[in-house]
């Protein structure tokens, strides 16, 4: 029985995705849930698991190609094909014919090569079967332009130029391009405003002693309870009106080497500290190794970013559309503070809230943050484990 492999919907309002790499060769065997291909879209880079056990009988979309959500990417069958076929550039060829005939390139690769005067036959491809991908061309173009600039600089002056005048173009990854597009879109879409609060984490710090808990699960717990009291923070703007979300799915921003992912803790308000901590660790580990499932980066209603993990004190993060707000957590540090007219050393943290002023006003945002602060400072954490 044949199974269609299609470009999945990897997030709300995402319309297309890029096939970065096929992890199973055409004609190869694959087990159910084994990673089948790597897909990149928006702020998401994921290994897509195989929906069934079988053979990858036909690959329809080559590496480096961007296609709309729902596009058929490949076919999976319980039986190996008698002659595996591969469609390239709209032509169906068999492996032997492809090997003996001329090399095939995607339309996007041919167009980019034409624009830059590149000989595709002279380029070593990194795609399936040695196919030249768009990323291969961008690497060649970047290297050539960088070398050309250096040569021009050396020819213009007899002495070596200062290092600052030598430029290098690093081709943008698909993830970096989509992050840039989404960040600019969010700034143009939402009326961004930020408010800052300082919270005393001394009680949280004391409770953590002897327990394998970071500060982040406590923040998630406090946020979900504050959202219950201020549900507008869990809504989205639409021209027809505000969409109020009944579920509290908290996105946790995870920094990667080449970008950012936001896996989601679903129904975070129904979970205790230990379960939240376990899910944060598990999601972050699998995000960094590209083993997240598509549904684990969808349906977030509110996002938390822990920029303090790198020592940052303040931040004004950009809202993760179509959400209404995002909470930034600064570095947790011991500081001298005034308590009851006396100076004391307390474990403190700055919290920031970037919010969409179309949806909520400053007073609502501040009341929400005051409740987050209160929950962090006054909760009986033993009951919330």
UniProtKB/TrEMBL annotation:
Domain of life: Bacteria
Family (UniProt): Belongs to the 2-oxoacid dehydrogenase family.
A GO cellular-component term linked to this record: cytoplasm
Organism in which the protein naturally occurs: Nitrospira defluvii
Subunit organization: Forms a 24-polypeptide structural core with octahedral symmetry.
Alphabetized InterPro entries for the sequence: 2-oxoA_DH_lipoyl-BS, 2-oxoacid_DH_actylTfrase, 2-oxoacid_DH_E2_comp, Biotin_lipoyl, CAT-like_dom_sf, E3-bd_dom_sf, PSBD, Single_hybrid_motif
Keyword Transport (UniProt): no
Keyword Acyltransferase attached: yes
Gene Ontology MF: a single term: acetyltransferase activity
PROSITE patterns: BIOTINYL_LIPOYL, LIPOYL, PSBD
Domain annotation Lipoyl-binding: ranges: 2-77
Enzyme Commission number: 2.3.1.-
Name recorded for this polypeptide: Dihydrolipoamide acetyltransferase component of pyruvate dehydrogenase complex
Cofactor: (R)-lipoate
Keyword line: Acyltransferase, Lipoyl, Transferase
Domain Peripheral subunit-binding (PSBD) positions: 104-141
């Amino acid at each position: 029985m044949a199974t269609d492999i299609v470009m999945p919907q990897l997030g709300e309002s995402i319309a297309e995705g890029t096939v970065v790499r096929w992890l199973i060769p055409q004609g190869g065997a694959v087990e159910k849930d084994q990673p089948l291909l790597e897909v990149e879209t928006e702020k998401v880079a994921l290994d897509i698991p195989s929906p069934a056990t079988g053979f990858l009988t036909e690959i329809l979309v080559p590496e480096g190609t961007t296609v709309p959500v729902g596009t058929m990417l490949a076919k999976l069958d319980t039986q190996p094909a008698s002659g595996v076929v591969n469609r390239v550039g709209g032509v169906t060829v068999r492996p032997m014919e492809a090997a003996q005939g001329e090399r095939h390139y995607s339309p996007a690769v041919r167009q980019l090569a034409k624009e830059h005067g590149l000989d595709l036959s002279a380029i070593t491809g990194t795609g399936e079967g040695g196919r030249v991908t768009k990323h291969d061309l961008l690497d060649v173009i970047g290297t050539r332009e960088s070398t050309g600039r250096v040569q021009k600089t050396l020819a213009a002056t007899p002495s070596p130029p200062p290092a600052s005048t030598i430029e290098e173009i690093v081709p943008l990854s698909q993830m970096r391009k989509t992050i840039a597009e989404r960040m600019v879109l969010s700034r143009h879409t939402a009326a961004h405003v930020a408010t800052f609060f300082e919270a005393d984490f001394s009680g949280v710090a004391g409770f953590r002693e002897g327990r394998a808990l970071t500060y982040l699960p406590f923040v998630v717990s406090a946020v979900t309870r504050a959202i219950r009291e201020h549900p507008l923070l869990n809504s989205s703007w639409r021209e027809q009106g505000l969409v109020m979300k009944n579920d509290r799915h908290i996105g946790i921003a995870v920094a990667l080497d080449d970008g950012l992912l936001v896996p989601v803790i679903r129904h975070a308000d129904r979970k205790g500290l230990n379960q939240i901590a376990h899910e944060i660790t598990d999601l972050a580990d699998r995000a960094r190794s590209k083993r997240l499932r598509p549904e684990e980066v969808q349906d977030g209603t509110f996002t938390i970013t822990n920029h303090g993990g790198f020592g940052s004190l303040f931040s004004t993060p950009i809202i993760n559309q179509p959400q209404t707000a995002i909470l930034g957590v600064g570095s947790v540090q011991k500081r001298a503070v005034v308590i009851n007219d006396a100076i004391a050393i307390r474990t403190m943290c700055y919290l920031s809230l970037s919010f969409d002023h179309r949806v909520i006003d400053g007073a609502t945002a501040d009341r929400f943050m005051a409740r987050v602060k209160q929950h962090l400072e006054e909760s009986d954490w033993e009951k919330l484990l």
